[in-house]
Specification:
The protein is mainly β and about 180 residues long. It has one helix and nine strands, in the order ββββββββαβ. The chain has one helix at about 150-160, and strands at about 15, 15-20, 50, 60-65, 75-85, 90, 105-110, 130-140, 165-175. The mean pLDDT is about 95.
């Protein structure tokens, strides 16, 4: 794991609270949130609840990012845009192939494997521990205006001037050599 902080060069944002019934901040992912390509993995997006978003929040976006992936640019596991401001929870599994647990109007962007769904943790064997930043972004617009086939990095770029607040949980994973 490196000291790479994915927020170090982003604009400051107010913090608010995100919790989960399946993620403990700083602890390893549960097997359900690990890639189905690893024995026991199920690619289930985590349950998330949030509160205390800044005044003026008009929508949310949720992202899951691994800055420790050996790519030079990290690895985006999940990105959801245009979550209505009235939504304060996503159920476990909301990020399936159809986005069945997402509120009306919200949509998933393709992750770095180019599938529009949650992709569980799968660090390369022997690469060491990886961090997974689970972030709820509070935005000052109802729709961020990115196309459904945009990359999560493009979503992040487009959101950068609209972020009012950021709520973060960090999970970890490691695949033994």
């Amino acid at each position: 794991m490196t000291a790479n902080n994915p927020f170090a060069r982003l604009p400051e944002a107010a913090s608010f609270t995100v919790t989960s019934t399946v993620v403990t901040d700083g602890a390893a992912w549960q097997p359900e949130q690990v890639s189905a390509g690893i024995p026991g993995g199920k690619d289930l997006s985590p349950q998330l609840s949030w509160s205390g978003a800044p005044e003026g929040t008009k929508s949310y976006a949720v992202t899951v990012y691994d800055p420790d992936a050996p790519t030079g640019s990290g690895f985006w596991h999940w990105a959801v845009a245009d979550i209505p401001a009235t939504t304060t929870e996503l159920p476990e599994g909301a990020g399936d192939d159809t986005g069945s647990g997402l509120p009306e109007g919200a949509f998933q962007l393709p992750n770095d494997a180019r599938t529009a769904r949650f992709l569980g943790a799968a660090p390369p064997a022997g690469h060491g521990p990886h961090r997974y930043f689970i972030v709820v972004h509070a935005l000052d617009v109802e729709s961020i205006g990115v196309p459904a086939d945009a990359t999560p990095a493009y979503l992040g770029f487009t959101m950068s001037g609209h972020i009012l607040g950021r709520a973060v949980l960090t999970a970890t994973a490691e695949t033994p050599a």
